[in-house]
Every structure is written in structure tokens, then in C-alpha cells.
């Protein structure tokens, strides 16, 4: 086994935390290109190893998945937010919740979702006017939030509930931006950021309580011929059987609300930005969308070759989840180095997706690269994670993104003054700093 992996020079007390906090995207890319497949980082409370070899990433996520858990540091503020929902739970709790939720996301149900997604997309487009300036990130957030609430919670948010969620997403997101001072500050310290975060969390919990109360009693019964199969109905029936606590129910609804819309909204936001800066590809996308006659059906989506590739390429260049972590439950060997039990293993989609080792001209937007993937390693691209903990909603997310993009492209072009690499705001997911203002052009 080789000695300790290379480590970029850090600062006293802060180690590499300030470098990472200043610009995690540039830092991750620099580490991948300068130090190789395994890099030792000093980012705070846990010894961290950044892993960029796709074969080793596959081992962590699939072959040796049973030997890894989510890191302990995710049990702090994020634990307050998501609790024992599917994203953070472990062991028997995760297994039970995943098995409960699986039927709601079954492939056999996807075709039933298409009309609902298209209706929400069309309702959004019907409010747009030629020449309007809109924050497209906000527009995509609202439509994907409406979709996930409809499909997985079977509720329609009121205007007040939608505004409450929107107003509190920012202070919640800010709490998870990299901050070297926060690394050494306990979560219980009543800093201004911590107070804003908990106030926002209280507001969000209020909406969640309203949603659960509205749905209670409408979830159907196990012996019904065709009981509702949205996630919330399934969980409410489990609660009726004594298999779901009120807190567990709350944790899952929060997870669905936040994780269920955020990544799809960001994927669409970056897709529109990239298309606006590549008009020849935008015109080809419009031609493919125009070829869809009538409503955007599930069968039509299966024929959307270019639009699917645009979405894949958008998630390669701007993966909404730009890094994930695992923690070994015993000493392991990765890339020839010993990684001790309890360390944090960082798997950075951002750096791997842009590595010249696996991608020609990696910073270039080129949807046609997906026509022939050659012998590229499987985990050179993993926007939805992988293995047993892969994103449960990945097929729904792809369907949703294709339906919304097609619906919009048939009626509008979206223009932007921004060019080049975006300035990103790192939180739990990667957001464009300042939103994504764009001008609507009716076709």
C-alpha cells in the first residue's frame, strides 16, 4: 500500500477549508488535474479523501456499498432538515423506507405521469409573454415543485404555501454553503445564520404539517381495489399500520419537497442557459420539439433523442449534486492508499464529469458526444449517484426534464446576456449565483 495520498498545501487552523469555501468547483477541478486519483484534504472535522477514479468510485457505490455509510457530519444541520428521510437514513430504516417508496416510482407508472407533467409545463408557458424577463431558475423551481407535489404528495400547493417555500429556500440553502468558520462552530451556537436557518425550517415545517393534515384520511386502505400510490398515501397507510412515526412521515415529506424538485429545476435551468449560448443546437432542439404532434406523450418522449442528450450533457457540465460523500465502516484501500474507518470519502461529480482523462474538450457543451460513448468508464458520469443508494427518482427526473423542455421549446426561445462559465453558488446543490434572468422570445 502506498503512503499518504498527496495533499494541497493548506493554512494553519483552516487547512484546505478556506480554499474549498472560496470556490469549491475550481478547487475540485484543480485537485483532480494536479494530484491524481486520490487526494487527501483537510476540510474540517473529518479526514477527507477525494476520489476521482471511476473504477474506485464504482467500488464505493456498488461493489463495496455495504461497507460505507453517509458521513457523521451530515447529522448536524442537514440532519435537522431531512432527518431520517431517504437521503440520510441508514440500515434497516433506509431499507424499510426505500421499499415503501419504490412502488410510487415504478417504471410501469412513468407513462401515467407524462400528461400531468405536460399540463403543469403548459400552465407555466401560458403565463409567459413575448419579451418578458423572467428568472428561469425560479420558473423551473415553481413548475417542478408543482409537479412533485402533484405526483408524489397528491396535493396542490396554495399560493401562500408556494410563497412560504420559495421565501425560505434561500436561508435554508445558505446554511449549507461552505464556510470555514462554520466548520469549527457548533451548530447550537445562536449565530445569525443559525437563527435564520431554524426560523426558515420552522416555516417549512408548517407547510409540511398542512400538507399531511390535508391528506390524512384520503390515503385509502390496503384492501382497496386501486389505492392511491403516491408516496404520501403509501406512507400514511404505513402510519395507519403503526409502521411510520409522525417524525418519519415529516422527514420523508420534507425530503420529497426539496430533493424531489431541486435537481430537476437546476438541470432545466442549466439546459436553457447552454442552449441560449449555442443557437445552432437550440434550433435543432426546437425542430425536434416541433416534430411532436399534439400533446407531449410518453411515446413521444421516447423518440426525443437530441433533447435527451442535451439534458445529459447539461448534467455533465453542471451536475446539480456536485459532490457526494461516503464514510467507510472499516479501514479500506482505495487507489492503493489506506483510508481509515470513519474518514470522509468525497466523490466529486463536478471534477470527474470535467476530467480530460474521460472527456474530449471537457468544458465544451457537445450533446453529440453521447452518440458514441466508446469505452468510457461507467462512473465517469454519475449525476444520480449509483448502487443501492442511487436517486430513487432518476427516471422521473429525466422524463420530467424532457417533457418540460419540449413543451417550452415548441413555443419560446430563451435569451441570456451571460456567456462563458457560470458563477455558481455552492450549497447542497449548485445554483447559479443571482438566479438565471432570461428574456422570453415567442417563436
What does this structure look like?
- This protein is an alpha+beta fold.
- It has a single domain, classed as Orthogonal Bundle (Cytochrome p450).
- Helix content is 49%, strand content 10%.
- It contains 17 helices and 12 strands.
- The strands form 4 sheets. The chain has a 5-stranded mixed beta sheet with strand order 1-2-8-5-3.
- A hairpin with a 4-residue loop joins strand 1 (38-42) and strand 2 (47-51).
- Helix 7 packs antiparallel against helix 12 (246-276), helix 10 (192-215) packs across helix 12 (246-276) and helix 13 (279-290) packs antiparallel against helix 15 (305-317).
- The longest helix has 31 residues, at 246-276.
- It is globular.
- The model has no long low-confidence stretch (mean pLDDT 93).
- It holds the Pfam family p450.
- InterPro entries: Cyt_P450, Cyt_P450_CS, Cyt_P450_E_grp-I, Cyt_P450_sf, Cytochrome_P450_Monoox.
- Belongs to the cytochrome P450 family.
The geometry reads as: globular
| CATH superfamily grouping | Cytochrome P450
Q: Helix tally?
A: 17
Share of helix among residues?
A: 40-55%
> Which class of secondary structure composition applies to the elements?
alpha+beta
Number of domains: 1
Low-confidence stretches: none
Strand count, sense and barrel status of the largest sheet are: 5 strands, mixed
Give a brief description:
GO terms for molecular function: heme binding; iron ion binding; monooxygenase activity; oxidoreductase activity, acting on paired donors, with incorporation or reduction of molecular oxygen. The chain has about 450 residues and is α+β, with helices and mostly antiparallel strands.
